[in-house]
TrEMBL record, chain A:
Name under which the protein is recorded: Ion-translocating oxidoreductase complex subunit G
EC number: 7.-.-.-
Annotated GO MF terms: electron transfer activity; FMN binding
Family: Belongs to the RnfG family.
Cofactor(s) the record lists: FMN
Pfam families: FMN_bind
Classification via InterPro entries: FMN-bd, Ion_transpt_RnfG/RsxG
Keyword set includes Nucleus: no
Biological-process GO terms, alphabetical: electron transport chain
FMN-binding domain ranges (all copies): 84-171
Membrane topology: Single-pass membrane protein
Subunit details: The complex is composed of six subunits: RnfA, RnfB, RnfC, RnfD, RnfE and RnfG.
From TrEMBL, chain B:
GO terms under cellular component: endomembrane system; plasma membrane
Name of the protein: Ion-translocating oxidoreductase complex subunit E
Recorded name of the encoding gene: rnfE
Lineage: Bacteria, Pseudomonadati, Chlorobiota, Chlorobiia, Chlorobiales
Subcellular location: Cell membrane; Endomembrane system
EC number, as in UniProt: 7.-.-.-
Subunit structure: The complex is composed of six subunits: RnfA, RnfB, RnfC, RnfD, RnfE and RnfG.
From TrEMBL, chain C:
InterPro entries in the cross-refs: Ion_transpt_RnfA/RsxA, NqrDE/RnfAE, NqrDE/RnfAE_oxidrdctase
Record membrane topology: Multi-pass membrane protein
Subunit text: The complex is composed of six subunits: RnfA, RnfB, RnfC, RnfD, RnfE and RnfG.
Gene expressing this chain: rnfA
Keywords assigned by UniProt, alphabetized: Cell membrane, Electron transport, Membrane, Translocase, Transmembrane, Transmembrane helix, Transport
Pfam family, one: Rnf-Nqr
Enzyme class: translocase
Family of this protein: Belongs to the NqrDE/RnfAE family.
Name by which UniProt lists this protein: Ion-translocating oxidoreductase complex subunit A
Protein purpose: Part of a membrane-bound complex that couples electron transfer with translocation of ions across the membrane.
Length: 181, 201, 195
């Protein structure tokens, strides 16, 4: 009987120790996650913002960035595609209130290092700035569109364009008014 | 004191857990794409090893041999979970890049091995020294491989670029094959180095 | 139909594209340890398949049945490793009773399996990827198949290496890693197969 008792005691001790540690770290973890989000959003907006409001809908999550006067300066949206060379690509897309692209950041991808992973390099990202749903033919140049594809990574380039279009459509749906301005 | 020094230093070269004993290789190969990851993984493992060695050195006499292994695993898993929570709270970037390999520290055979072979048979003081020596030896090997891979594969060291943005690097070292090849080359290098030093004596 | 093709993707991905050994770096210790001979490699492979599949199934049930409802997901690591450890012990006892010959051939591998990170790793990945129960079990089984494929390939190469004239510093372990690197390079050719 003794071995079982000892094992139980060890189990109870470790479980209670973990409960304490979990309790202590719960808030720091939540804060750290929030800060990671904020850092990512700060990277896609070229301006400093004062406060952030999160809008969660069924499809995705929107982040509204406000300046000191409480006017909206930018909207960020999480969007994704399964069309990458190795499946899922997740990006955070930032647009201005008139729904022009300010920039994006790749949150998750499994594209080939050295080829497809250039979708997260400034050189490729630069071309998206200022584009809107309407002013751009969202195909790659190979297919007669406006998007410069990456050498040897056409699929990854197309996938990013798709994800961006999806994000722009989400924003248009969620903020129909600002588009009419 | 001499004994303590011996226990401390053997983890680095003579009985290095990675290059000599081939223990805990999964994280060694998986997370060594950048020096920061390698260092983070090494230190996290050292922390767990220290915690488990201390507890096991103190408690091993009270634990009957029939439930020894399950108890040891419980102790190790507890420390791993603590490290996991702490990394999540204070270094979310490291958490993201180490990912699943943080919980997998629990099955790092080096830790159970030290608990079995050393901490359960030695006093607290030696067990602490053993944990730090072995842990730092493990970290040292991780750092060696990760610097090798980061410099060749990404052209950076601790994220500081060594070459221009557009320079092409030997990408294969950032990929899985480079992990295997890198470790093979490092062990071969250490082997021949050791042999040369032995010859001189 | 859609579900079926989804499963097929998981299968191909688990065996080839994301092979546990070559792409995920799980189970390296037994990969190097028992791959000297083809038949021991196969024995280890079967033992791993058995424990991996059942551990992932039980882990799935416990995760969604206990950890999530009670909001104690941080106990995941402890829970899973205990499941694996007791499962290994159980398999050992049952095998001893049921089939002496099977026990004799698999028995020596069982204790090694507890610290095989592939088992815990696969169980954790199944949760992380939000797989359904069926997908998780299929994923675990075919990840184990990928593991068997890896150790069999490697065992074959190693038997040849025994006779090869290898430069001294590279003898044994280093040349093993170099061969593993080449194998892993070959497996990279499968990437892009699954979208």
């Amino acid at each position: 009987m003794r071995p079982i008792t000892i094992l139980t005691i060890v189990g109870i001790l470790s479980a209670s120790l973990l409960a304490v540690v979990e309790d202590l770290t719960r808030e720091p973890i939540a804060i750290a996650k929030e800060q990671m989000k904020r850092k990512a959003i700060e990277q896609i907006f070229p301006f400093p913002f004062d406060s952030l409001r999160t809008v969660t809908t069924e499809q995705t999550t929107f982040y509204e960035a406000y300046n000191q006067d409480n006017a909206i300066e930018g909207i960020a949206v999480e969007t994704s595609t399964e069309e990458g060379y190795s499946g899922l690509i997740e990006i955070l897309l930032g647009v201005s209130p008139d729904q022009k692209i300010l920039g994006y950041k790749v949150l998750f991808h499994r594209e080939t290092p050295g080829l497809g992973d250039k979708i997260d390099k400034p050189k490729f990202k630069e071309q998206f700035k200022g584009r809107t749903l309407e002013n751009t033919n969202w195909k790659v140049k190979k297919d007669g569109g406006d998007i410069d594809e990456l050498t040897a990574a056409t699929i990854s380039s197309k996938a990013v364009a798709n994800a961006v279009v999806k994000g722009l459509e989400f924003i248009k749906e969620q903020y129909p008014k600002s588009s009419a301005e | 004191m001499n004994e303590a020094l011996n226990i401390f230093t053997r983890g680095f070269v003579k009985e290095n857990p990675v290059t000599k004993m081939l223990l805990g290789l999964c994280p060694v190969l998986a997370v060594t794409t950048t020096a920061i990851n390698g260092l983070g993984m090494g230190l996290a493992t050292t922390f767990v090893l220290l915690g488990s060695n201390v507890v096991i050195a103190l408690a091993s006499k009270a634990i009957p041999s029939t439930v020894r292994i399950p108890s040891f695993i419980l102790v190790i898993a507890t420390f791993v979970t603590i490290v996991d929570l702490l990394i999540q709270a204070f270094s979310p970037e490291l958490n993201q890049s180490l990912g699943i390999f943080i919980p997998l520290i629990v099955v790092n055979c080096m830790i159970l091995g030290r608990a079995e072979a050393f901490a359960s048979r030695n006093g607290l003081w030696y067990s602490i020294i053993d944990a730090i020596g072995m842990g730092l030896g493990f970290t040292f090997a991780l750092l060696l491989l990760s610097i090798f891979r980061e410099v060749l594969g990404a052209g950076t060291i601790f994220n500081i670029p060594l070459v221009g943005e557009d320079a092409s690097t030997i990408l294969v070292f950032a990929l899985p094959p480079g992990a295997f090849a890198g470790l093979g080359l490092i062990i071969a290098g250490l082997n021949s180095l050791e042999k040369k030093m032995g010859d001189k004596k | 139909m859609n579900e079926l093709s989804g499963l097929l993707l998981v299968i191909v991905s688990a065996i080839f594209v994301n092979n546990v050994v070559f792409a995920r770096f799980l189970g390296i210790c037994p990969y190097l340890g028992v791959s000297r001979k083809l038949d021991t490699a196969l024995g280890m492979g079967f033992a791993v398949t058995f424990v991996m599949t059942i551990a992932t199934a039980i882990g799935y049930v416990l995760h969604y049945g206990i950890l999530v409802p009670f909001k104690i997901e941080f106990m995941q690591t402890i829970m899973f490793i205990l499941v694996i450890a007791s499962l290994v012990q159980l398999v050992e006892i049952v095998l001893k009773k049921v089939s002496k010959s099977l026990y004799n051939s698999l028995g020596i591998f069982l204790p090694l399996i507890t610290t095989n990170c592939a088992i815990l790793g696969v169980a954790l990945i199944a949760i992380q990827e939000d797989y359904s129960f069926v997908t998780s079990v299929v994923f675990a089984f075919f990840s184990a198949m990928g593991f068997i494929l890896a150790i069999l390939l490697f065992a074959g190469i190693r038997e040849k290496l025994e006779e090869a004239d290898v430069p001294k510093p590279f003898k044994n372990v280093p040349i093993g890693f170099i061969s593993a690197a080449i194998l892993s390079l070959a497996f990279m050719g499968f990437s892009g197969l699954v979208k």
